[in-house]
Design brief:
The chain is α/β, with parallel strands linked by helices. It has 9 helices and 5 strands. Strand 3, helix 6 and strand 4 form a beta-alpha-beta unit. The longest helix has 31 residues. The protein is globular and about 80 Å long. The relative contact order is 0.14.
């Protein structure tokens, strides 16, 4: 009997892992079906979601035409907003298991094999025209080993990434930086690693408050800063990645945060057309 139970558990783990990687492959496949950048007409805007697993949408539901993660949820919520009248396209540039070191410009990285993710983003016309960039990065830094990353190095990398985003592509874009989700830390991390993530989030909060680089506060996605994130149904079965319910909540939370920015940008286009 014990042998059968052990075999059943092993089969369950095996199929769970298989399902996870099939799901991950489907998410990347859906990126091939991203809509082209709208070039007809004048009233077009772009939002980019950039980051790691949480930006990519590992735990959420995805479709080939709708995308993954927060993208389809945010598009649905914005469609309800009567104050948002122009066209807004939202693109997902999340990458699985990437750290802040992976998103540095090649010149800023201390790795022998230089990262190219951010360079690739700037080479694509869809992303160069972004009005708003949402950065969801840092949750994988605690697991990084080559090189290892301290909380202070995570903040330094995020500063460099935000500065690079600001300098490349469209001028005057808004950058929103989120805190690091900490759900599941008690299951997967050591006491020291959990303490490091708390420090990372404190440093991020201090950085966006100072607003030295024009970086704005994004969502507080950690358990310490936002008690609403403690709801179990916001997370996938691993207890760490966001579920479809979690992404729906995040989309609703994002709307009041970025709506004034969006309306201001739309109004600026109207004024430019009127010659004011």
């Amino acid at each position: 009997m014990d042998h059968l139970k052990s075999l059943s558990r092993s089969c369950h783990v095996f199929w769970t892992v298989c399902f996870f990687y099939i799901k991950l492959a489907f998410i990347y496949l859906a990126r091939w079906y991203e809509p082209a950048l709208r070039t007809q007409g004048h009233y077009n805007h772009t939002i980019i979601i950039l980051g790691d697993d949480h930006a990519l949408g590992v735990g959420g539901y995805s479709t080939l035409t709708g995308g993954s993660g927060i993208v389809p949820k945010l598009a649905k919520e914005l469609a309800k907003e009567t104050s948002v009248r122009q066209s807004w396209q939202i693109y997902n540039r999340g990458e699985y298991r990437t750290s802040t070191e992976d998103w540095l410009l090649s010149a800023d990285s201390k790795r022998l094999e230089k990262p190219k993710l951010l360079n690739r983003v700037f080479q694509d016309p869809k992303y160069q025209m972004a009005d708003i960039v949402i950065v969801m990065l840092g949750s994988c830094d605690v697991l990084e080993k080559n090189p290892s990353l301290t909380p202070q190095e995570t903040l330094r990398n995020l500063q460099w990434i935000c500065q690079a985003i600001q300098k490349n592509g469209k001028n005057g874009k808004s950058i929103y930086l989120c805190t690091i989700p900490t759900a599941g830390d008690d299951l997967y991390l050591t006491d020291q690693q959990r303490a490091d993530n708390v420090t990372r989030n404190s440093l991020i909060e201090e950085y966006v408050k100072k607003n030295n680089d024009g970086v704005l506060p994004g969502l507080q996605m950690d358990l310490a800063s936002n008690f609403e994130m403690r709801r179990g149904n916001l997370y996938w079965q691993d207890g760490r990645h966001f579920s479809d319910i979690g992404y729906t909540k995040m989309a609703k939370d994002w709307v009041p945060l970025i709506r004034p920015d969006m309306v201001k940008r739309e109004f600026a286009l109207y004024r430019a057309d009127l010659g004011q």
